Amino acid sequence: MNNRIKRLNRLLLLAIAPFVGVFAVLVLQPHETHIPLDLESYKPLTALNKQTSDIMTGLQQAEQVAVQTSASIEKTTRLYNRTTAAMSSIVRTASTQAQKPEQIYNRRITTRLGAAVERVNSQRIQIELYRLNPGSYHAYAMKIKLRDPDAMRMTLGKDSFGGAETTLTATQRYGAIAGINAGGFADSAGKRYPLSTTMLDGQYVSGFQPSFKDLFFVGMNHSGQLIGGKFSNQQKLDSLSPSFGASFVPILIQNGQKTPIPDKWQKTPLRAPRTVIGKYKDDQLIVIAADGYNENGSSGATLQELQDKLYKMGVIDAYNLDGGGSTSLILNGRVVNHPSDGSLRPVATNFLFFK
């Protein structure tokens, strides 16, 4: 029995011996723990803090510069706005002053014409219609300011050499706002051909013909200015850069002076429906269409009367266009004058005006 107890005790000692050893180590081992400190690992963190500090300082300086710059820009902007406003005022004043001579001159023109009965105004053209009743004849005057050289054109009757159409038909076909008959014509073999030198789109329709007898050429140059006169050679006419034009008789005023009217044209006929075209020194155009009841010389205006009227109106160049039954004045789609034939006559050429 005792032996059995001894064997059991030895067995228990052997079983707990490892645990006793571990316990002894834990009890006897010192408790102080040393954690190594590596200062090198803290250097990046210190550098990062310095960079952050530098950035913050830079941002503060940038903010101060920005505030100063903003104030400078605001000051410059105010100065610029004041300068711009002052310059705009100067430009407006200068523009107004520059327009005064033109306005004064135009007022002088319209004073001699009376009150306009109809107006057309656009970016391309300005038209004013007046009634003229000096006593011996009745007429209509159309004052035209071309703001665009292309606002006036010449057309051939039905767009063909030898063709003919009324001014009303031409305005309707081309969509023009106004129109008048242009040069003279001659009939041959059922065709109606324009007289002498005729130009269309800068080209001679049937070649250049030197002026002879009382014929003249009248038309527009590429700048929208009325040109005309007698031309002995093509070079002389070409030097004026003509765009279009037609021919008839006679010249009434040139370079501000009355020109002698040949006896033939003073008497045959004495009075008649007339169409004349002229210009003022500021390049405004004037068209007069005088009414008459026939072509036998008993009604209408004389060339002398129209010449005197134009001269007193301050016109510097004026030319007599085809008249009689050819006289046509169209505005806003209607016939303004009273054709002596009772209806409009088909003509070889027409001057058209576009809105």
From TrEMBL:
InterPro entries with a match to the protein in the record: NAGPA
Keywords tagged on the record: Glycosidase, Hydrolase
Pfam families associated with the record: NAGPA
GO MF, one example: hydrolase activity, acting on glycosyl bonds
Keyword Cell membrane appears in the UniProt entry: no
Domain of life of the organism encoding this protein: Bacteria
Phosphodiester glycosidase domain residues: 174-354
Keyword Hydrolase appears in the UniProt entry: yes
Name the UniProt record assigns to this protein: Phosphodiester glycosidase family protein
Organism: Paenibacillus wenxiniae
Organism lineage string: Bacteria, Bacillati, Bacillota, Bacilli, Bacillales
